[in-house]
Amino acid sequence: xxxxLFLICTLLLVVVLAIFAFAACDKDSAFGVExxxxxxxxxxxxxxxxxxxTMSSQVSFSAVTDGENRYLQIKNDSDTFAxxxxxxxxxxxxxxxxxxxxxxxxxxxxxxxxxxxxENESVDFVEYRTTNGEWVEAVFxxxxxxxxxxxxxxxxxxxxxxxxxxxxxxDVSVVRVKESEVPAGASIVNFHKVRNVQNVDGAGLAFExxxxxxxxCIFVAAYILLRKLYARNDxxxxxxxxxxxxxxxxxxxxxxxxxxxxQKTSFADIAKNTWVVLxxxxxxxxxxxxxxxxxxxxxxxxxxxxxxxxxxxKIQKVSxxxxxxxxxxxxxxxxxxxxxxxxxxxxxxxxxxxxxRFVNVLADMxxxxxxxxxxxxxxxxxxxxxxxxxxxxxxxxxFFGGMNTTFESVLVALMLATVVLMVEKxxxxxxxxxxxxxxxxxxxxxxxxxxxTYFGYMYYRDAQSLKRFTKNRAMIVFGLVGAFVLAYLLxxxxxxxxxxxxxxxFGFKYMASQITSSTLFVDNAFNLYAMVGMNGKNYASxxxxxxxxxxxxxxxxFVISLYFKNRNRQExxxxxxxxFAVVSIFTLKTNWTYIFLSIAFMLVYAMISGExxxxxxxxxxxxxxxxxxxxxxxxxxxxxxxxxxxxVDFASKDGFLIAFSVFTVLLTGYFVYVVYSVTNNxxxxxxxxxxxxxxxxxxxxxxxxxxxx
Length: 709
Description:
53% of the residues lie in helices and 14% in strands. It is of the alpha+beta class. The chain has a domain at 44-177: Sandwich (Jelly Rolls), CATH 2.60.120.260. The strands form four sheets. It has a six-stranded mixed sheet with strand order 4-5-12-7-10-13, with no helix packed on it. It has a five-stranded antiparallel sheet with strand order 3-6-11-8-9, with no helix packed on it. Helix 4 (274-295) crosses helix 9 (395-402). The protein is globular and about 85 Å long. The two termini are 47 Å apart.
């Protein structure tokens, strides 16, 4: 029966995946979609235009307000040059309409105000020395022949033709059009790039390579230490020689009696204390993230946008945010509360960016603490210290903690705490943490079917008679109701005006729209759809959205069914990791942050079970996830300087993206096999103890190889 259920669920997964893969495809989906971000220059914060990068420190780039309109003004009082730029992803051989409004005062010297592309700056598509103080609209059509990135530059002067004066720009737009829509008499410029425009340098490349190698070395070193620990007889005993399930952390300052009075507390005794060990872990966690806090501006333009939101929230409050940003639905209620608190501080952009990311640092410290204490309870703090320390220094983890400006680290901490409390049957606390997770990020809804199913099973097992309404059963039922009520109350400040107008469930709709509003196949992530060249592309069919949701539902049913073979509650960590891994790699609407969500759950299960394959998959995901992020940062110049620019997106057919998407898809397929073999076939591949010294083991390894040859 179990095998049949597995076969049916697997077939359903494959069929649904195939159906919505075909339904989602629409070759014309990109027509008419605006590619330029902040082309009307409405978002301006701390002298920076969100989405744009300035290329001169000697020239004034300002936002001028004319009535309700705001536009860019470049003013140059010295004889030099300056420009603003932004990169957009395009398709080779497609036709794009580029338009902008320009106003130019009389310029000195030989320079001009013009629009060009950084891929080939020898071509100026529009050029004015004066417009007599009037706005003019510039329109041209371009067909990129050998590039799938266009970096539009709004220029005043050039390197060989400097000038002084004033140039204004507004309503900058790049949209794909059909060739038949090009007006008669308008020409299409066949554009060829002559150089790579990625904002990269040697320092950024070195940073990327060093941390990728570090990820490998960290996992290998931790694996060797694991094997050495498993070779010890006291592997499951705490450092202070208490049992792994001893919940008393010890008190270094407790009064001693009898013979104990004669013994002095040594430094070794202090170092082995539970709280001292945890303190060391938290110090390391904080220290490695502090480097990124102080040396980067987060994620460039993304940071500026978040700080802009914080400033708006200071004035508009949470209740006015939705009305102010009509149509914006990508910011969760939980994020709005954090940003509102940040906005109230009135800090400068530099300081605010540090405080914004410090929230993630605190969340990472919480995650490390959860791993440490949960592991201490079941396998002792020798192993839990190793795994908590591993998470603390993983490059992918400290990137999300120290550089990322959204709150995935907070989400991981909340969800990990939710699953720990669920496994420990802390019903009310589980519901509380689950609700907070969903309010912080709607992706946590993935846990809801798992929690409801497991607690439903606990309801069934709590008493022989279903008619008995015990204390635990009351907490399970009323806790679930309370969770929905709490979620509603927490969403009310965001939706208060809409509720007053009669839309009672606007808060829930707003949270759901974080997912439903996206029409992207995939956004710069190693993913099945990136593997087939669909990165950054939109789909036009609503059927794709529904089938994507159906796929996730079938996946949830499949994963939950795996639990009931062994009914081992520790396997929930493995199953939750599987859900997030498959959603990250095989569904629509995902981005580069998704792959990170599964890693902590893999590490916890590997710590509890000693499963070698799960540990290796966790290492693979950590490496691929960081490689994905590091390459984006490298392309965007964010590893070498405190840039305020946007990400330079992967091209749809980027060889790097496609190649590593293949590896990620294969690794995820292997992970599905591993989870099934563990949960259904009871096949655990243990991490073996490593006897003897490392030197002797290496000698024996080469000796065996030689004998085999």
